[in-house]
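User: Okay, second chain of the day. Same drill as before: sequence in, structure tokens out.
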Amino acid sequence: MRIAMIGSGYVGLVSGACLADFGHDVICVDKDENRIAMLERGEIPIFEPGLEDLVASNVKQKRLSFTTDLSKAVPGADAVFIAVGTPSRRGDGHADLSYVYGASKEIADALTGYCVIVTKSTVPVGTGDEVEKIIREARPDLEFAVVSNPEFLREGAAISDFKRPDRIVVGAETEQAREVMSEIYRPLYLNQSPLLFTGRRTSELIKYAANAFLATKITFINEMADLCEKVGADVQDVARGIGLDNRIGSKFLHAGPGYGGSCFPKDTLALVRTAQEAGSPVQIVETVERVNKARKIGMATRIIAACGGDVRGKKIGLLGLAFKPNTDDMRDAPSIDIVAALLAAGAKVHAFDPEAMEQARPMMPGVTFADEPYACADGAEALAIITEWDAFRALDLKRVKESMNNPVVVDLRNIYRPSDMKKRGFVYSSIGRA
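Assistant: Same drill. Structure tokens below.
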């Protein structure tokens, strides 16, 4: 099938490359001329394991191409996916839909025949109705369908998630649209991927509900970690004990510095605003959003406390800046709030991340960025592990201890064993463990 992917950011590029790998003819569109120029040169503007090879392979096979001209990509397409950004709107927390609606108007002008317009972007309930209205007002005589097909991609595992999904949610109102979407995802049938057809509004809500539920699990185990510290329990054993219950499951029960990234913070906030406007507030999600914000700042307080309550003029080393490993995404990363609080307290912050430092530099003026992790430890009063990159799991701890001014390690991801660290002579602090 012929597919146009409007937006070549994280979701658009991964989705477009995977659909091309299924055998479809995909054109990825983006207004950012530099981004398209990079892609045409074979350079990938984001870090995602396996994506560079996947893009190169499908470009070579002439199934994947890139352009800044939407009017050339849309005519004749069987489906047009909208995968543009929907950031939180300043001031009220609603999703900013200006890019979605702008793309809809351009798509309407370029359509030449029946087409399925697919909202891949994360959007509030009712957005598909507005997209349909925009296109119908511009082209009242044209046959088309608007479908919701939310993405469920984990950064760092996006290609696997797209090709071996738990489910594919499609909100469609007509049988013809369902047939087109079934054909697009037909290559996945051998993997028995469940294709769940719903109404369009239901599909839009599924995405928000899923992210809010996962954010709630993270926040729940973080609060259990705080309780564990007070009563002398071990949060990792608690998480395993409840996670083995198949009604609960073990995923997203890892205590840490709070959730971040491109989805959970903005999606929980957008769901809160949508529910408030609908007159059906989601008070659990409201609390989750508030508690998670406070937790990020609280992690800086924990680091300061490990240094005796005063970090003025002291070097503090941070390992990891991205919101999770295997990505360079800094959006709403806990490290942002932690760094801001440490700098405000007078600390000299030195940081290293295997992939995210280029993204982090403009966000963190005043931070010294190191070339490797041991430079962060050299002469430091404390070393804090913010992101659980594999590179930090097997550090030469003897070298770390000898290079530090004080052997204080604050492990916000629980990647080391407390007993081992104490035997090695570290003053070790972790999350929810004795």
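The chain has 17 helices and 14 strands.

User: Thanks, on to the next one.
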